[in-house]
Structure formats: structure tokens, C-alpha cells
Design a protein that fits this description.
The complex is a heterodimer of chains A (219) and B (352). Chain A is mainly β and 219 residues long. Chain A is built from two helices and eleven strands. Chain A has a ten-stranded antiparallel barrel with strand order 1-2-3-4-5-6-7-9-10-11. Classes of the chains: A mainly beta (219), B alpha/beta (352).
């Protein structure tokens, strides 16, 4: 019941990031972790994050903060920041199930519009976790809840002068299904994660798959 | 535990928690109070089509509503304008009906500007009717309706040149002459050979990442969002076209994403390789063809047009200095001078 309440609380605040992906079998309450990652998700994103492991309601929980920027020109207009919480729900020997929830803000700047977005991500992972390796499957859904869009003058001049700026609500989302694996050497852990993504309506994305390569350091 | 012995006045942790709660509540109220918009609402992100705006000029052909308008005298021979894309619109081609150095096409032709099926401000459609065969039937219906029993002149740009050539290939007797500006590849094998030069698909490019990243802000689950997303990539995906950017760039109304996608897919085999051929019967066409290339259009310009010119029996190539793939927009007067000279030449015997 306590775990269910905790999960419900997490759902209320709203991760496709690495939070639930690190080897839960290696971490203890009080541990901390820094991670770096490079991903195609769905653009080329380079991220850095910090996670803190705690014990809440009798189970291990990770609270995390991650920020990432999208590749391209040397500008920071395309970014995301995530606040995440992950909780281990089930452990039967080496088999573990974890749920994750995240609140995130994202920004973008392109020739058509500039936008800031607030969204949520819910996911679950299940797999075999040993101290030096793990392999797991994941499902999840990333929801774009509300987005502020401001169109550029270039778009207005070239395409549509009456394009509406403002807060756009309920802009769909992206589901995912994938696998991940990690290998630990000393305090470092290398992670590889891949899967397919579909829109809320089941359409393929421009980049229909995601791929993440991560490196974490526990301390 | 702190919760069992707290003092709501003195306990700073409680104060902080209450403060945070008020911030969250205030934020929620503020967001709720804001007027919110819906991306799928017509007119918010991209212009309304003829199905949503009755004031737009339109015609109905083969069960679809097409955004269309005429210029010139209805008694004159019909000239049909074929825009690029597929999926784009005729907005940037409208200046071709204006007057340059005392000459206007509208003095000599009844000019039909129209947005093709699923494109521009025409009615949106799904995959089943976005095929090359359907496009051919649409153009034939326009010819039969507005020039019954007569030959027409075609003026196409980019994809419009491919479309026009495909029509000539199928109905050579229905076309008197054609003007194709920066026409795309007329054979799938040619497209396969040049597409690596045409598209900039370096996965670290800003345009490609902007395009992909947009999926984090809205999912492409309906026509409007698809059209909007396509526009993000429209400006920079073919850099070697050397089209003008920023102020004075070629305008458009809407990129019909499904038309762009499914027309191209219809020209591909099961493995996704282009296998269409619009030239199988082209030698049956005896009319004249003017090909126009922008000198700065590196891939679709002079090299491609020189290669494709012999595919027509009677074609000439004119090169406009300084022009890119958008030469019809940036160098309209120079293009019109070439068109004027071409059309002033005697019409081939046997034309009606």
C-alpha cells in the first residue's frame, strides 16, 4: 500500500532518461551518482545528470536531476531538464521491477518557432540485476502537457502571418518500448539502451528508434 | 518525527513546504486561467484550407476540393501551372502572371493556378488517393474541363516539372508545349543517384535535430501537426539548392506532409528505392519544351537539366545567372524573358 501511495504521488508530479536504468543492485541508500550520456532521443542529445539514492517506504528510491542539450549549431536553444523519481517496486532475487516518473521542461528554437514545454514521463523497467551487470526491458510514455509557442517573424513573413502564439494544451505524446543493458567496472558503469518509439496515435516518429550510450560514476 | 512535533509558526521546514505548496497551487491556477490553444484547430499553426475557409477560391475536381484561381482572359489558350513539392503550393509562382518589360503571360493565356490534391490550401487527403495515377487523373480532368478538345501549355517548377512530364508521357497529344523550371529527376534511377547530393542528412545538422526535436513538443498525430513539422525541415534540408533564406525568401502557404510523403512513396519499390520512370513514352511528344535552370542550383540545376534535356524530342535549356532552385521567385523577370522568347517562337505544325 505504501509503495502504491508513493507511486501515485510520483504520478501526480509527473523519465525517459537514465534514472531507472542504472544498476539498482549496485546502489544503496546514501549513494550518489553522476552520469553522462549521448543519445538519439529523438534528436542527438548530450546530457549530464545527478542522482541520489534514498530509502523511502521500505524500498530503494532514486531522485534525479538531469539536463541535456541538443546537437547542432553552437547554441543552447534546444534543451531539456528533468526532475525524476524512481522506485523499486518488486525484488525477487535478481529480478527487479522499477517504476519511474519525471517532470520535465524542454525548450526549442528553430526557424519556425521558439517553444518551452512542460511534460511528464512515466515508465517501468523489469529485468535481471546483478552487481556487475544487468539486462532489462522498458515501457514508457512521454506526454507533452503544455507548450508555449512563439512564432518567428521569418515564418510569418514566409508562410503564415496569422500563426497564433500562446499556450498549447495537450499536444500528444510518445510511447516507447525497448531494452537496456549495463556493465560495471569498479565505480563506473557503462549503459546501452535502445528501442522503438511511436506517437500517441501510433504513428512512427521521424526517428522511429532511440539509442542511448551512458557512463555513470557512483560515489 | 518532525511531523508529530511541528510548530507551524516556528518550523522553517514546514514554512518552506507550505511555500512550495502555494507556489505549485498558484502556478496551476495561473496556467488554468491562461487561454489555451489547440494545435489541431485549423488556423492556429498553419493556414486554413478550402475546407475550412469558404472565402478561398476553389474548384471541385474528381471529388476533391482544390484551391485554385485564374488569371487572364478565358478566351485565350489554357496554361496550367504546376507547383513544386510534392505537397507545396502555387504562392511563389503567382508573380509569373505579372507584367515584366511590358509582357504578361496573362495577355496571351488563361492561366490556372491550383494547389494539387492534398497540397497547399487544397483539401487534405490520406494515402489511398495520394498516388501518381490519381494526380494524373486530376490534371487530365482539369484539361478536359477547362480546355475540352484543345491542347494546353504546362508550366511546372521542380516537382511540377516532373508532374508535367509524367502527364506528357501519358497524354502527349493533350499538351502543346511545356515550360519546366528546375525540374526534378524524371527517372527514379536518376533520383537514387543524386539524392545523396541533394539532401543534407548529416545527423548533427541543426535543421535535422530541430526537426526531430519537435517531436518532444507535439506528436504528429494529425494532418495539421504533420504539415507544421514538415515546415521546420523545409528551409534547410536541400542546402545545395542555394535558395534564398530570410527576408525575401520564396513564400508558401502550407506544406502538405501526407501528399509529400505518399506521392514519393508511390514512386518507390518495396525497398524504398525510387523506381518511377516518367520518360517511357516521352519521345511521342513532338511539342516544344523550355527547360530553365538556376546557375547556382548545384544538384537540380544545370547538370541535371543538361542530362534530362535529350529525353524530350524538342527541348532547349536556358540558364539564369545568379539563380538557385527558387530562380522563378528570385529572378522572375529573367525567367519571364526566357519564357517570352520561347513562346514567341512559331508553334509546331499540327498543334491545336
Amino acid at each position: 500500500m505504501k509503495r502504491a501511495c508513493l507511486l501515485a504521488a510520483l504520478l501526480l508530479v509527473g523519465q525517459r532518461d537514465l534514472a531507472a536504468q542504472w544498476n539498482l543492485a549496485r546502489m544503496q541508500p546514501g549513494d550518489a551518482q553522476l552520469h553522462l550520456s549521448m543519445a538519439v532521443d529523438p534528436a542527438v542529445v548530450t546530457s549530464i545528470g545527478y542522482g541520489r539514492f534514498t530509502s523511502m517506504f521500505g524500498t530503494i528510491t532514486r531522485l534525479g536531476l538531469e539536463t541535456g542539450v541538443v546537437a547542432g549549431d553552437a547554441e543552447l536553444g534546444d534543451y531539456r531538464v528533468r526532475l525524476s523519481a524512481d522506485v523499486q517496486l518488486v525484488q525477487r532475487g535478481a529480478f527487479r521491477v522499477a517504476a519511474s516518473a519525471a517532470f520535465m521542461t524542454r525548450g526549442t528554437s528553430n526557424w519556425v518557432f521558439r517553444a518551452v514545454n512542460f511534460g511528464s514521463d512515466f515508465g517501468a523497467t523489469a529485468g535481471m540485476y546483478r552487481r556487475t551487470w544487468f539486462v532489462a526491458g522498458e515501457v514508457g510514455f512521454d506526454k507533452a502537457i503544455i507548450t508555449h509557442v512563439q512564432h518567428t517573424q521569418e515564418y510569418r513573413d514566409q508562410y503564415y502571418p496569422d500563426a497564433k502564439d500562446g499556450w498549447y494544451l495537450n499536444n500528444g505524446g510518445t510511447g516507447r518500448l525497448g531494452v537496456m543493458t549495463g556493465r560495471s567496472v569498479g565505480g563506473a558503469e557503462l549503459l546501452l539502451r535502445a528501442g522503438i518509439a511511436r506517437t500517441q496515435g501510433g504513428e512512427a516518429l521521424t526517428v522511429p528508434a532511440y539509442l542511448t550510450l551512458g557512463l555513470g560514476f557512483g560515489f | 518525527m518532525r511531523v508529530e512535533s511541528f510548530d507551524p509558526v516556528l518550523d522553517p521546514v514546514w514554512e518552506n513546504a507550505m511555500g512550495a505548496r502555494w507556489i505549485v497551487m498558484a502556478s496551476a491556477v495561473t496556467l488554468t486561467a491562461c487561454e489555451t490553444l489547440t494545435m489541431s484547430e485549423p488556423g492556429n499553426l498553419v493556414p486554413r484550407t478550402v475546407m475550412e475557409d469558404a472565402s478561398l477560391p476553389a474548384i471541385t475536381v474528381n471529388g476533391t476540393r482544390l484551391h485554385a484561381e485564374f488569371r487572364g482572359d478565358p478566351a485565350k489558350p489554357l496554361l496550367i501551372v504546376l507547383h513544386g513539392g510534392p505537397g507545396a503550393d502555387y504562392r511563389s509562382l503567382l508573380p509569373l502572371a505579372e507584367r515584366y518589360a511590358g509582357y504578361s503571360l496573362a495577355d496571351h493565356y488563361h492561366i490556372l493556378f491550383w494547389d494539387q490534391r492534398g497540397a497547399g490550401l487544397s483539401e487534405r487527403h490520406d494515402k489511398d488517393v495520394l498516388t501518381i495515377d490519381q494526380y494524373d487523373a486530376d490534371l487530365l480532368a482539369l484539361v478536359d474541363r477547362f480546355a475540352p478538345g484543345q491542347q494546353v501549355t504546362l508550366l511546372g517548377q521542380s516537382w511540377g516539372g516532373m508532374y508535367g512530364t509524367s502527364f506528357i508521357n501519358r497524354h502527349p497529344a493533350r499538351v502543346r508545349e511545356a515550360i519546366f523550371i528546375e525540374s526534378g529527376p524524371l527517372r527514379g534511377s536518376t533520383y537514387e543517384r543524386i539524392k545523396g547530393d541533394l539532401f543534407d542528412l548529416n545527423f548533427l545538422r541543426e535543421w535535422l535535430n530541430d526537426f526531430a526535436w519537435s517531436a518532444q513538443f507535439f506528436s504528429t498525430d494529425d494532418h495539421i501537426r504533420l504539415d507544421y513539422q514538415l515546415t521546420i525541415g523545409a528551409r534547410d534540408h536541400q542546402p545545395r539548392n542555394n535558395a534564398r533564406k530570410g527576408a525575401g525568401a520564396e513564400p508558401a502557404w502550407r506544406n502538405g506532409a501526407k501528399a509529400a510523403r505518399y506521392l514519393q512513396e508511390d514512386g518507390q519499390d518495396a525497398a524504398g528505392k525510387f523506381n518511377y520512370d516518367f520518360t517511357t513514352n516521352l519521345q511521342a511528344f513532338t511539342g516544344r519544351v523550355l527547360l530553365v535552370a538556376g546557375a547556382r542550383s548545384e544538384v537540380l540545376g544545370v547538370p541535371l537539366q543538361e542530362e534530362q534535356r535529350p529525353l524530350y524530342r524538342n527541348a532547349v535549356l536556358k540558364i539564369v545567372p545568379g539563380g538557385g532552385h527558387d530562380v522563378h521567385w528570385t529572378h522572375t523577370a529573367e525567367v519571364m524573358a526566357e519564357i517570352r522568347t520561347f513562346l514567341a517562337a512559331p508553334v509546331a505544325a499540327g498543334a491545336r
